[in-house]
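The material for today's practical consists of a large collection of protein records. There is nothing in a record beyond a sequence line and a structure line. Backbone structure tokens are a discrete shorthand for how the chain folds in space. Nothing more is needed to start thinking about how sequence determines fold. As an example, a complete record with its sequence and its structure tokens follows.
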Amino acid sequence: MALDAMTRTRIETDSLGSLEIPADAYWGIHTARALENFPISKRPISVYPDLVRALAMVKQASARANREIGVLDPAKADLIDRAAQLVIDGDFHDQFVVGVIQGGAGTSTNMNANEVITNIALELAGREKGDYEFLSPIDDTNRSQSTNDVYPTAIKVGLGLDLKTLLEELDLLRRAFLAKAVEFHDVLKVGRTQLQDAVPMTLGQEFHGFATTLGYDHQRLTENAYLLYEVNMGATAIGTGITTHPAYAPAVLRHLREISGLDLATASDLVESTSDTGSFMSFSASLKRNAIKLSKICNDLRLLSSGPQAGFGEINLPARQAGSSIMPGKVNPVIPEVVNQVAFSVAGADLTVTMAVEGGQLQLNAFEPVIAHSIFQSITWLRQAMFTLRVNCVDGITANRERLGAMVGSSVGVITALTPFIGYAAAAALAKAALLTGRGVADLVVEAGLMSRDEVAKQLSPARLSGLETVTAAIPIVVAPEDVVAEAPADTR
């Protein structure tokens, strides 16, 4: 590495030669080579804290298992254990510097973790960084392990940890929509199909639908999380378990379950589990489902708030910023818009994961780094998108009650509620007349002698129009006068 002449350094050596390493760096030569080789993303793995914690959890579990089965000196195992705990607690994350996109199937990430944890342990022992004769990143911290079981296991554990906070935020957003459903329970509006007026409903029902669909996504994400809980620790290079003690796999699993709190299990076929990455594809697909449904909700919020004068104007979104540098007073739906863009990104990331899963060859998939980056980024962005949608938008939504009431009052769609009483033909004729004259449907029905004013008022009550109160008894249809039926347009649906 090119270093300033005044920078204090230490020399580290690997099979390719020697390099100068900054004296204060906890990472070592393998990490230094990765920094030279992969100046791609300019984003270190530390941008995903749960991945870093998961790596430390795997190292800690391995140290405990190796000590338990007698293949690692107890004093060394204790140092590694303590150093890993510091990383789990959030310390030294800035030392995890390798890029999220890298060649080598994650080897650089695994070595970054080995070097950082080893050098923390050396300091705990009162030793200098780089004193690998005393404690080795490979022979000790990486004992009984390979990148090919450490890295995918750490990804799965990290995603399991990350998913918990995503689900918490998703549930908070669901509850925010439920609160609005209660607030708007009595606000009648015109429902729409294919962007055309349909039949009445309440604004509360619309928001309740948003909450329900987010609840379904919560269930699907929780179910798909279990696909991630099958790990291949003990597989080492290709699944045969070469260099491991027979007791290592069950021991490391037990410790990793305890450390992570996740319901992990060892794969029944370690060769298959090491080469196959289908679980990542399934989990990514569930994230995409959530993102797309969230985007659809945001589309609806933008439509419902459009205008405010020349659009739907049914609801008001909180004004978050000036909307134009040229049009005074313009306010845009910036929060739903940013959530839309997150959804587009998640959909793209899912395609990346799909292609990377397909690209695996023989006993290992070399493209797990881009799989990990894609899924961790999707979770991170979705979580933050849900937060800003809830706090900066949904919580502050208000209803334009007067406008909604006027729209329902003048809507010909309400006549649908009267078709069981006056028949489709008469209803169609009166709907046409209402559109042509601008008169209210209720007045036309009464004037035609088809129903009394009280009967019309009862059937067009908010409870009946929104379906909250239904009619279940047999309904006799009034025979409409010939002149009314004659005005009915032909049914072309």
Remarks:
- DSSP finds 19 helices and eight strands in the chain.
- Strands lie at 9-14, 17-22, 188-193, 196-202, 230-231, 265-266, 315-316, 398-399.
- The radius of gyration is 32 Å.
